[in-house]
Amino acid sequence: MLELFACAQPYWxxxxxxxxxxxxxxxxxGFVHAGFAPNLEQSALEYSNGTICGLMVHPDFRRRSIGQExxxxxxxxxxxxxxxxxxxxxxxxxxxxxxGIYGGLDPSGFCASAAAWPQFFQKCGYDACDExxxxxxxxxxxxxxxxxxxxxxxxxxKLVITDRPTNESWWWFVRYGQLDSLRFELHEKGxxxxxxxxxxxxxxxxxxxxxxxxxGIREIFVPESQRRHGYAQALLLEICRRLKEESVELVESHVxxxxxxxxxxxxxxxxxxxxxLLTFRRxx
Length: 284
Ligand SMILES: CC(C)(COP(=O)(O)OP(=O)(O)OC[C@H]1O[C@@H](n2cnc3c(N)ncnc32)[C@H](O)[C@@H]1OP(=O)(O)O)[C@@H](O)C(=O)NCCC(=O)NCCS
Description:
Radius of gyration: 21 Å
CATH architecture of the largest domain: 3-Layer(aba) Sandwich
Order of helices and strands: HEEEHEEHEHEHEEHEHEHE
Bound molecules: coenzyme A
Number of helices: 8
């Protein structure tokens, strides 16, 4: 998995992966992995925006300043490549490595529950930056909302599932290209116009750890002229229904806490906040 989701990336640079090794025992005490965020067009890396994609110190070696030293060395590497700032944790859709194997749908930050990140990064001279909320729906236990509007929409709309997404950026392909993906569209019966669309990403690599089949949902989109008709909620519910039929038990999406529209939408489709992914920034 590491080979596929880190070392095989086209921008993989061995100098960005820094290990701490105990001289006496030879054991690996920790690692830090530094990379870069994409440019605005998502067509290449933006070397002025450094990221720390992974950081871990083995429990036997904690509280000996190894974490701090790893961060310092990651900064040194990033600066040498042109970075003006570092975002530890990367941020929503900003991490070059570990998509599909850390953080759920997207390694949008460091899991708040995994470590004392705020205290640690404060000590390293970082400020708290964005966080991403992990929204989840348990498809086995939760029930769909029922109301007349949703029933009416179901009569007028049909779900069309298309194969792999096509008009995606280079950044999409390097991160999600190794994973299963499908595009879902809600079409108006008769006119066949698309009133809502979204994408799912398979998260099968978490099965051994989580014990359930899970899928990530992203890029829910409703054209401007079709908004406020309940199409996004209808699409989300329809996706959930189809996934449940395919034995998927858990669906997940990542949303910024300030994105109230997205939060309300997912809440209306019975998603709940399941965790937080944190990031921290430092100007170099
Ligand atoms: C966060 C982590 C990297 C810290 O590594 P570390 O080598 O123990 O950190 P340091 O010894 O350099 O600590 C530096 C400072 O951070 C703060 N800190 C670190 N761990 C802390 C804790 N558990 N509680 C409170 N503060 C803490 C302290 O201010 C500490 O300074 P001090 O020891 O002088 O008080 C380590 O706890 C870890 O690997 N946790 C799990 C990470 C993980 O899940 N990674 C997956 C995402 S890639």
